[in-house]
Write a structure and sequence with these properties.
The structure holds two protein chains of two kinds. By secondary structure, chain A is an alpha/beta fold. Chain A contains 15 helices and 13 strands. In chain B, strands 2-8-7-6-5-3-4 form a seven-stranded mixed sheet, sandwiched between helices. A four-stranded antiparallel sheet of chain B has the order 11-12-15-14. In chain B, strands 1-13 form a two-stranded parallel ribbon. By secondary structure, chain B is of the alpha/beta class. Classes of the chains: A alpha/beta, B alpha/beta.
């Protein structure tokens, strides 16, 4: 990979600029009506560069990234599947891009039709009764979901229910979300085979239980076999079940959260429905609910009156938890998810879960065959699985992080490392359905090579990566000597 | 199908390796009673050509009307290079930059973005983006409660001149944590929050005051007086600002004698298409002393083991994946791709281009309101300076007028009746640099006709 690229500010020259991009007619004395005391004294120090300089700079920066388009990216729990080009191209048709969010419904029937059909398709694949599309990321959807659970209990006058139960293996967003919703978090253990500890759950539920947040398959990469019993225990205690859709890819077309007993869920459209991750967003965290929570869905939602589509707002849903985005969430992302679902269709949806599971189980078996240790060896992998490097860490002093960094040298993005927290030295590996057998075989070969190196020349692995734009970075220094914005004199 | 590359031979070999006969056998741990659904409600697949045709038809239905709505989302020219680069697979299909060595492109872009936002707002630090302007405002209120240790009330003063949707988002996102949002009335003559009207809060425990500049009506608030009043009473100031306007208007960091404490806003005007409301991005900047209270991702520059400069996510101890229930927010995925587009946009515009864009938008908006208020029955709602947006009062109901305009392919502005019924028939109108003199004249002529028709009716 290329090494380093200067900062854009270091290209800047006073008086230079991409002036062909700028408006010409600024009127005469355009600011005469703005009082001097409300105006800016000195211009903001943005870079002054030509278009070609900017294009080269950002193109070079892009080349310092690993991405799905360039590398196998088996990041567990993130579902880094291929993002079809058609989804981007057709979501960026000029009319879609130009449409103002507050434009009248008469100038949005095409867009609204797509959103309405997306809601309907998501209801079908999740087994939910209602869907709202506006949450802008998984965590935002979680927030909507837990807020709906709270609103439901409150509407029933059941004011003391403020506890959210979370298995210890849960994503960090689950407890953080519960806190944002003003709830108290109760963590419960999972048993040695990776299922929720039912006895602990029974002991945890009670009159204060608002609900439980579960990912299924869990973050341990295994299906929660006791889900029906979990649902029964929580429902009998008066609580509701929240489904964290992070791992929906595993079961798409095979089993639906609604059928498992979940009352509310979010879907990470940027995982299961292949909208781009964008280097950290935009995501889209649509929420689905069963009948009990329908009145509380966030607005806006797209409704249909005969042949006309229209926005449903606060006046249609007076008990709604309200508005979570200024407009309609990440509408352009929703369009991409819609296009993806139409490209896949019914049969394609069913194939996703099957081939994601096939790839994960194949990769797990091959890694086991070359000597790696599965965290849950007796369990079937879902769409992802955990390998633990604890033996190598103990015997060779080579850690999961070392394996991860060495994989970068060998042309593979690292799996998720050190999550979930309860498996020591873990690599959470999710190949997704869009990778070929050859790629999976090459990954196994790379892991085997690293294992050999760990045995024969461990320093090479411990000090990896060697071929990337930078070596391992000093995170402690980054946090102690905060250098968060550039000035001509800043030194890291 | 489904972008799955497997051949039949691959599948057979893989199943043999695993030691099962059929793919279906891999789902044996799922209780049979729960398994399989027909997905009858999902249509049959379409190929790419068919989907392309479907989407083109849907897009054609929506058309490209001539739009004069702003209200928090603004049509600006976006240089072709912005999205040509932003949609490169290396940006588009990368994940959050957890593996710093394999993500230097995204990380350096964020560092450059943080620098540009800090410079634009006049603040010391910025984060890597929030979801949008509305949710950024809500997060700023939550952050102010953490940052203002002297205040115990979690009471936030919110002028009704703040975008009505932002006010609703703030309530929806923060009410469960006990925040109280108290709305401040505006002066009906001037369309701003009068500093004198705040005197009734003197001596009360208030955590933060939100000030939007320009406000929802496009009017300029007396930000210096409002900021100084707040600071004199131990109240933090949250600035909600339009980034384009900051090329010309005083940045939040210079408001009053001490500057605002937190600056947030909708980043959409910086190179992001209108796209029915998203994806956009929120930005957030603050003083260095509050950086640990800031939500969201932050990138820092550091050194690698060889002493070379590099970039990494930092201050992660604030975040959900480390702090879990004690995190500053549950936000993780934010709006990275839009942040990338904005960084490229700001680089191409530079200080001069952004100032010209702001000035041209302001000029077009003034020309438009001057033309429209010469029509009988149309007048400006508020006295005093505006920036690139204004409220017009009509002497008749707005709805039939807007419908008549829409029938001629013109979106004439936002009907304020659902938000500010006390104004009577009122339209919020905006013109940016994208509008030509001919566009403005087309609107004027159409409005003139529509008003006459409405009058006759």
């Amino acid at each position: 990979m290329p090494r380093r690229e200067k900062l854009i500010f270091e290209y800047s020259q006073p008086g230079r600029g991409a002036s062909d991009q700028w408006p010409q007619d600024v009127g005469s004395a355009p600011l005469a009506d703005l009082p001097a005391k409300l105006r800016r004294g000195t211009a903001p120090a943005l870079p002054e560069v030509g278009e070609l300089e900017a294009v080269r700079h950002f193109t070079r920066l892009s080349q310092l990234n690993f991405s799905i388009d360039t590398h196998f990216y088996p990041l567990g729990s993130c579902t880094m599947k291929y993002n079809p080009k058609a989804c981007n191209q057709y979501a960026m048709l000029p009319q879609f891009l130009a449409r103002h969010p507050l434009a009248p419904e008469s100038h949005g029937q095409g867009f609204l039709a797509c959103m309405y059909e997306l809601q309907e398709m998501l209801k079908e694949v999740t087994g939910m009764q209602g869907v709202a599309l506006s949450p802008m990321a998984g965590a935002h959807g979680e927030f909507a979901g837990v807020a709906m659970i709270r609103a439901y209990h409150r509407a029933r006058g059941d004011l003391k229910r403020n506890e959210i139960i979370v298995p210890e293996a849960a994503h960090g967003t689950n407890p953080a979300t519960a806190t944002m919703c003003g709830c108290v978090v109760r963590e419960i253990p999972v048993n040695p085979s990776g299922d929720v500890d039912l006895a602990a759950l029974k002991a945890a539920v009670g009159p204060n239980t608002a609900g439980i947040m579960l990912t299924n398959p869990s973050t341990l990469g295994v299906f929660e076999r006791g889900i029906e019993a979990v649902a029964r225990v929580v429902h009998e205690a008066g609580g509701l079940l929240y489904y964290d859709g992070a791992n929906l890819n595993a079961i798409l077309g095979k089993v639906r959260p609604g059928d498992m007993g979940f009352d509310v869920m979010h879907m990470n459209l940027h995982k299961t429905f292949s909208t781009p991750h964008g280097g950290g967003g935009p995501g889209a965290g649509a929420v689905g609910v069963g009948a009990r929570l329908m009145p509380f869905l966030p607005v806006p939602i797209v409704g249909r009156d005969g042949e006309r589509y229209r926005w449903l707002t606060e006046s249609d849903l007076p008990q709604s938890i309200g508005r979570l985005s200024a407009f309609m969430g990440n509408a352009g992302v929703l369009l991409r998810a819609y296009i993806y679902m139409r490209l896949l269709g019914r049969d394609g949806m069913r194939a996703v879960g099957e081939y994601a599971t096939l790839n994960a189980n194949y990769l797990l078996k091959r890694l086991k065959d070359v000597g790696f240790e599965a965290a849950y060896p007796e369990r079937r992998a879902s769409h992802e699985f955990i390998v633990t490097i604890k033996r190598q860490a103990r015997e060779l002093n080579v850690t999961a992080m070392d394996f991860a960094k060495r994989l970068l040298d060998l042309g593979f993005h690292a799996p998720t490392t050190y999550f979930p927290l309860l498996v020591p030295e873990c690599l959470l590996i999710e190949p997704t359905e869009t990778e070929s057998k050859e790629v999976l075989d090459a990954f196994v070969a790379a892991m085997s090579q690293i294992q050999r190196e760990a045995e024969q020349e461990p320093e090479r692995v411990r000090t990896a990566p060697h071929t990337m734009p930078v070596r391992r970075l000093d995170d402690v220094r980054a946090a102690r000597h905060l250098d968060l914005t550039w000035t001509p004199t800043t030194q890291p | 199908m489904a972008f799955i590359p497997h051949t039949e031979a691959d599948v057979a070999a893989m199943l043999a390796t695993i030691g099962v006969r059929r793919i279906e056998d891999l789902f044996e741990e799922i209780p049979a009673s729960l398994r399989a659904s027909s997905l009858a409600g999902v249509p049959e697949q379409l190929n790419e050509m068919q989907v392309g045709r479907l989407m083109s038809e849907r897009a054609a239905v929506d058309g490209t009307p001539l739009s004069f709505i702003g209200a928090g989302a603004y049509e600006h020219h976006i240089p072709a290079a912005v999205w040509a680069i932003t949609t490169r697979g290396e940006f588009y299909s990368a994940y959050t930059p957890y593996q710093a060595e394999a993500s230097q492109g995204t990380l350096q872009t964020i560092y450059e973005f943080q620098t540009m936002i800090a410079r634009l707002t006049g603040m010391e630090v910025a984060n890597a983006s929030m979801y949008d302007g509305g949710s950024a405002t809500a997060e700023a209120a939550l952050m102010a409660v953490r940052a203002n240790r002297k205040s115990k009330s979690a009471r936030i003063l919110v002028p009704t001149t703040l975008h009505p949707h932002y006010r609703r988002v703030a309530v929806a996102m923060a009410c469960n944590q006990g925040l109280e949002f108290e709305e401040l009335p505006y002066c009906t003559v001037e369309g701003v929050t009068l500093p004198a009207s705040l005197a009734r809060y003197d001596g009360e425990d208030v955590t933060a005051l939100i000030i939007q500049q320009p406000n929802f009506f496009g009017r300029l608030e007396d930000v210096d007086a409002l900021t100084d009043w707040a600071h004199a009473h131990g109240i933090l100031v949250i600035a909600v600002v339009n980034p384009t306007s900051l090329a010309l208007l005083k940045p939040p960091g210079e408001w009053g004698s001490e500057g605002a404490d937190i600056a947030v806003g909708e980043g959409q005007p910086l190179g992001v298409p209108l796209s029915s409301g998203g994806p956009y991005f929120g930005f957030m900047a603050t003083r260095m002393e509050y950086v640990r209270q800031m939500p969201g991702r932050i990138v820092g520059r550091t050194l690698d083991v060889a002493g070379q400069e590099g970039f990494t996510l930092t201050l992660q101890a604030r975040e959900q994946h480390i702090r879990r229930a004690k995190a500053t927010s549950n936000i993780c995925t934010n709006q990275g791709l839009l942040m990338t587009a904005a960084t490229i946009y700001m680089s191409l515009m530079g200080p001069q281009g952004l100032a010209r864009t702001a000035a041209a938008s302001h000029a077009r908006s003034r020309e438009l309101t001057a033309m429209l208020t010469r029509l009988p029955g149309v007048r400006l709602a508020f006295n005093g300076p505006h920036f690139h947006e204004a409220v017009l009062l009509l002497d008749r109901a707005t709805e039939p007028v807007l419908e008549a305009l829409a029938a001629r392919g013109i979106i004439g502005g936002l009907d304020l009746a659902p938000y500010y019924p006390e104004l009577g028939p009122a339209l919020l109108v905006c013109a940016t640099e994208t509008k030509t003199a001919a566009d403005l004249e087309r609107y004027r002529a159409a409005l003139s006709d529509a008003m006459q028709t409405a009058r006759a009716a």
